[in-house]
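Because discrete structure vocabularies remain unfamiliar, we turn briefly to a single example record, giving the amino acid sequence and backbone structure tokens:
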Amino acid sequence: MTKFLCAATFLLVATTAQASITADAISNADYNGGALPDGQSGLAVKVQVLLDRADISPGVIDGYRGGMTTSAISAFETREGLEVDGVLDQTVWDKLGGDGASAIVKQHQITESDLSQFTGENPEDYAEMAKKDLLGYVTAAEALAEAFHMDVDFLTTLNPDSDFSAGSTITVVAPKDPAEAEVAQIIVNKSSQRLVAKTADGTIVANYPVSVGSSQTPSPAGTFEVNGIAIDPTYTYNPDKNFQQGENDQVLQIPPGPNGPVGSVWIDLSKPTYGIHGTPDPAALFTAQSHGCVRMTNWDARELAGMVSAGVSVVFEE
């Protein structure tokens, strides 16, 4: 496995119980004017899926009008040359193809392959992590939620009677397939917490929500390059170069896996110890800051990794 250093950390946040929502409520949701409603709604699910299909990632699809969804609407408005306010309106709805959209939810039969990285509970202490072979998904529902860009609680709400075992059929949303393009430039905008991927002619091929560093441990400023890409990377924990986790004061090799400190992907940058990577906690992107790296959902990071190569320009802007 490729090993890289990263000045990154993550914060686990408590989840709250979600209101009941059904596949019919999502399928029948229509836009009748005004902003997205407060609370969980079928309309918000539909808008999130349409943004995902438009290559403007809303992050975790959960049916709530949160910060990531608002930022995604703003990013869509910017790309389409509209007035930017982050609020759903008729023009945004029409440009997303809301009235003529194909099915937002679908049925999926779970396969053994879907659950290949389901390993059960993982320790939080890095020294204990280092003893494992794989930091896989804690539950089958978590594995499936990531596959369809969904929040785990939202998936279980849609499937209250499922045990998520291989062979069973569940209701999921229908996001897009991964984008395919040759990215020439990545722009990380710290204030909006969005990452923009562009081709050589300036075409925006994808836009993603990210976490960046805090004022105490900021992300870098300036222009760098991609050094290399690692899928399912190991993580080298070095408290002398990065940060200290708990009482761990020795270098540790943390195994790969979607629930590792850098998730499923590491895009190494020419700035030593910095990179763009996945996360074990996608719902926390807009509520937790990194130690300087750029953190993405695992599925967004995998998509980006498939479009970049060594030498791609990475610009950090305020």
About this structure: Residues 3-13+180-317 form a domain with the L,D-transpeptidase catalytic domain-like fold (CATH 2.40.440.10). The helical segments are 23-27, 42-53, 67-80, 90-95, 126-129, 140-147, 152-158, 298-305. The longest strand covers residues 222-231. The two ends are 34 Å apart (CA to CA).
